[in-house]
Amino acid sequence: MYLKCNEKRHQVYDYTNDDSGSYSDGRNIDHTIGPDALAGVGGYYGEGGIQEYAFGTENWAFSEYDQFITRMLQSNLTDAELQQELQDFQNYITSEAKTYYVNGTYPPVNTPPSVVTTSPADGTKNVKLDLNIEITFDEDVNISLADLDVTGSKSGSIDGSLSYDPSTFVATFDPTSSFSPTETVTVVVRAP
Known about the structure:
Number of domains: 2
Number of strands: 7
Strand order of the largest sheet: 1-2-6-5
Number of helices: 4
Oligomer: single chain
Largest sheet: 4 strands, antiparallel
Radius of gyration: 24 Å
Shape: elongated
Distance between the termini: 26 Å
Structural class: alpha+beta
Order of helices and strands: HHHHEEEEEEE
Helix content: 25-40%
């Protein structure tokens, strides 16, 4: 991806040294495209013109990478599965970034969904032992039981079923059996 990005930069700037440096260190002295085409009329570095889609694609790629690494850190994949996931991710990023660079467009940066509230709330005590756990997201998600780990400090891993209401963005975990008295229950949601 760096090579594709740098190729685009070479179309904008006439320089011989690819080392990074400050804006005025000579790297941009001989550019052949005017500042309006480069940054947009009255634009600031990276806000418009040719730079907008180049920077937009880079920002998208970095966001995708951050989300990918987070998912991998939360996974229980074998080395072989992890290697395949990495290869698939590299192929996806390369293909998508090339398309955006060639077309002079860029995708919006996607932010992962986040948990807005839980019921019971974090730290709540004296909860009914057979209570369902509700998780409300800030947007519609595609969540399955595989994205959820529910663990009791005494019970260990807790089995159950999961339902989801797309109209309210609420996922409900219904435990198969009751929680143990005085145990702390931890719920981990992997990026759906």
